[in-house]
Here is the input.
Amino acid sequence: MFLDFKSEVESLLHSALEKCGFKVEVGVNSLSLESSPHSDLASSVGFRLAPVLRRSPALIAAEIHKSMAFSPGSASSVDRVELAGPYLNFFMNRDFLDSIVIQAQGTECWKGKMSQKVIVEHTSANPDGPLHVGHIRNSVIGDTLVRILRKAGCTVDAQYYVNDMGRQEAMVVWGCDHYKLDDSKADHAIAKVYIAANKAVTETPELKAEVDHIIQRYEAGDQEQEAKIKCAAKYAIMGIEQTLHRMNIRHDSYHWESTFVRNGDVDRVIQDLQKTGLAEMEDGALQLDLSAFGFEKKLVLRRADGTSLYTTRDLAYHRWKSTQAERMVDILGADHKLISSQLRTALRLMKIPEPEVVIFEFVSLPSGSMSTRRGKFISADELLDEVEKQAFEEVTARRPEESEELRRSIAADVAVGAVRYDVVKVSADKATMFDWKAALDFEKLSAPFIQYSHARACSILRKVGEIGQFDPGLLTGENEVAMIKKIAEFDQVIDRAGRELKPHQLTTYARELAESFNLFYRFSPVLDAPQELKASRLALVNASRNALRETLETLGIPALETM
RNA sequence: GGGCGCGUGGCCUAGUCAGGAUAAGGCGGCAGCCUCCUAAGCUGUAGAUCGGGGGUUCGAAUCCCCCCGCGCCCGCCA
Here is the structure.
């Protein structure tokens, strides 16, 4: 696919440069390759070389162009190279376009060549209540990255780190001791006692000691507290999992932070950090001085009462992770920026590989930021319910003759897609404001737009039996060629999103792919086309359907066959 | 106060990391397209000094500096 074309262009350029005796600096994109409206791939390397060679970029480009060891048929994917002033324009040849259509008939061509083992940790929400619309930004970004990396060829373990030793879980247990869990969904029931407990402790500060006592006994290995905390946390996670599953999100493994306290890993981390000479006792607590690395405040490794802290436990978790994978990816909210830099610095001090951290900015409500503790949030369940309700109305308006069962099922799939696409389409480093109107809009910049294109392709394919013999060379219309080229881009998009950990790039591609298909659909009749052309167009519909399906699946969005 | 991030038509965003050939979409506005494979679609049109100011460069939305605005953080919480 596109990456093959690109590497062929690269080697053509490299040998031409060598022939001319030109040297380019090594580095990313040293050949100055860029996508261009004027060609399939362009190089502005002439500009790069101009200051060194003291000649005009156009002259340099012309010289490179002249010594390009290129004749028709000498390359498997490049048709021609054109000189346009200082630019070199590369074009794909017909054989290459044909091979894209043929490859895309199958299932093999969509998988990338990466082969690393990767751990992606995402969601890891405290088991103190349901996921809200802020949490799901973490879950959706994380799960989409898991899918992208798998598509790129990696072996991925999606991990959920369970914070069972923190204050918030002790608060939940205190709440369960004093209030009754009602029969609402597990995570929602937990949230109610958690909110009540917070209220009680705020109003009666003396109760704080009781909560502290729970933490201390749990850390000391008290069986009763352990049973209570594990039970409460598991109950909350059960509810959280239901919500995640509803959004097509699954974790491969769960890791409890208490594990790393019990097995001694936390103590070992502390010992190793002491060996750096940067850790010292202050006010009874062990603190790490990271001022040499630009951190003002010291990082507390162990409380004066001897109990551990979140960061220290997280260090132990990361040390373990580093022995299990070649890449570690953490998805964290913007509130973790500082602590994750400190974590990485501490790991570096111990010569432990650092994770790649994907930070996403906050999702706020028009009324301000969300808070589980204060009960101020829109839950993911509520969001999904509302979107599903809206989707049901829309599908009913369009397909009133279909059974309610089918309409419900389509609405559920549309809702999952709409929510996931809406969340992941914005770059992670942009703070967003939750907007009901946008969440309930199923038009162009949304998952239903892409699902719809897929459904249209399926609809055409349903009307014919087999595709049979076809000649891809007949697909020469403007929209047909554009569609083939767009399909070809799939491997490059996956590769780049997987390396840069930018899942929103895939949503842009998905939109472009669907747009291309809709144009082809609009201007190239398939079923009414003359016999031979019909077969070729059917093959392109099939290729498009496969590309749309792969893209949707990688986004975790159901590829609906009818809607 | 310090650190990090963000600022692109009325609104939401892509493009910024790796500077290049006319700033790309959506929503909303206006004007059109269902005897035609699903109109959750398609076409046309109006609308942008890319927050402001300096600088680097043949060339800056993109890199550097300053300023302004917004967000997050600066706990022996997580």
